[in-house]
Amino acid sequence: MGAGPEGCPPGLAKKAVPCAPPGQVRKALRVGDRLPPDGIRLDDPARLGLPRLGNGESYYRIGDTVFRIDRETREILELLEAVGAILN
């Protein structure tokens, strides 16, 4: 058959992140990292059912991941990966 997992081309199946085309592999963000500038701020988190924010905090989204961050430092305080599905 020659294809990798779930029909990936053999060349991409052998990559460090299987099936991810070059240029689309991004360092996984973790608590304590700084949020990159391409995040989209969520202005009405209560409407989305997100927990209440503390002073100086905001929610941002990148792809299907929602991040709770410190507005001043842009440090990631929490990842809410499952929440991204309700935003689509």
TrEMBL record:
Organism of this sequence: Meridianimarinicoccus roseus
Protein name: Excinuclease ABC subunit A
Domain of life where this protein originates: Bacteria
